[in-house]
Amino acid sequence: MDENLFPVPAGVHPDDPILQLPKVSLHDHLDGGLRPATIIELAAQSDIELPADDPEKLGEWFRTQADSGSLPEYLKTFGVTVGVLQSAEALTRAAREWTLDQVADGVFYAECRWAPEQHVTGELTMDDAVAAVEKGMEEGVAIAAQEGRTIMTAQILTAMRQNDNSLAVAELALRHRDNGVVGFDLAGPEDGYPASAHKAALDLLRGELFPTTLHAGEDGGLSSMMDAIAACGAVRIGHGVDIVQDMQITDGAGEIGRLAAWVLDRQIPLEVCPSSNIQTGAARSIESHPITGLKDLGFNVTVNPDNRLMSQTSVTREMRLLVDHAGWDIIDLEIATAAALRAAFIPLDVRDRLLEEIVMPGFERIDL
Q: Adenosine deaminase domain: from which residue to which, for each copy (predicted)?
């Protein structure tokens, strides 16, 4: 594999066997996954001042700023990345590199989530922005194919819950549902901004049978998750680690509340992002992260990077952390990968084929 096209993910040893495992990434933000060198080049073109002009130092600045222990503070780092992504060319480049970075991470299916409403301060319309991202991902897929690598990508369009553009973003997603857009999301600060405030958009999508995965249970507690599931009909939950507040479990035994039981019994997929959760204060450490207890109780957990730049991470690194610090083994990783694939917003027959042709043989070849 060409290392210039597919750089080894940050914090990952190139000989780590986990790097060779086939992976799925469901919760992976475009504007949280830019390469530092690309930010520097794009900023120079737009006369945007950066806190550092060296890629390594800039990457460290993002990680340090994100280590705030607060979701609102963590989100402030996106002012820089969104600022350099205000042209079609910049969005296309970012999406192309985002796709190639998935390949370098061993990801064969990736959903790219991002908020078009944040990329129209220049001459772009939201439709232009969606087309630019799709173009970049298609270019990345083509480059990977030329190098003998396979990757499938799709877009999830995000509306910001603190704004009032959700209906327009929902309509945008429906216009592009046959051109690479497979889902809708609400992101941004949870506290004080319930998903149900965007009922018009969510009702439209539900009526059109269009999937939604909503950020919830990251810093808004159980009420955020109840709102997303009961009032808004989310079929997946972004993060969802606050579900542990609805259970009393000791040594694998105890009681769980009605919401936790609903999530467990219906196997609602949780898009868990361990390193990011620690940065925002949703968890204290990898050792004590709720994902392991939830896995052991049978919840439908998946492993995701959230923001590759801010957390200096990848799916490979998240898996390695869980193996080294939380006792996961290769069977756990395979179950989480299969769960992510089954939760993907693509047709069932495609998911079944990818499971049989890529996931099962891919895990059989690797020994940790």
A: 22-359
- Enumerate the H helices of 147-282 as residue ranges: 166-175, 199-207, 221-226, 258-265, 274-280
Gap between the Cα atoms of 197 and 200, Å rounded: 8
Given its phi and psi angles, is residue 251 left (phi above 0), alpha (psi -120 to 50 degrees) or beta? left
pLDDT for res 3? 58
Q: Which domains does the chain have, with CATH numbers?
A: 24-364 (3.20.20.140)
CA distance 205 to 198: 11
Residues 260, 277 contacting (CB under 8 angstroms): no
Q: How many CB atoms lie within 10 A of CB 356?
A: 10
Among this protein's residues, is 41 annotated catalytic?
Answer: no
Strands 247-250 and 253-256 come out as antiparallel
The residue annotated as part of the active site, out of 218, 271, 318, 334, is 218
Answer for the pair 156, 113: CB distance below 8 angstroms, yes or no: yes
Q: 199 in helix, strand or coil?
A: helix
Question: Distance between CA atoms of 100 and 121, rounded to whole angstroms?
Answer: 27
Query: Mean pLDDT highest for which of 215-224, 245-254, 317-326?
Result: 317-326
Length of the chain: 368
Digit-coded pLDDT (tens) for 147-192: 999 999 999 999 999 999 999 999 999 999 999 999 999 999 999 9
CA separation for the pair 159, 198 (Å, rounded): 9
Task: Select from 115, 75, 26 the least CA-distant residue to 315.
Answer: 26
Backbone phi, psi, residue 188, to 5°? 105, -175
Q: Which residue has the tokens 């993002």?
A: 62
From first CA to last CA, the distance across the chain in angstroms is 21
Q: How far apart are CA 103 and CA 118, in angstroms?
A: 26
Phi-psi region of 232 (alpha: psi -120 to 50; beta: other; left: phi over 0): alpha
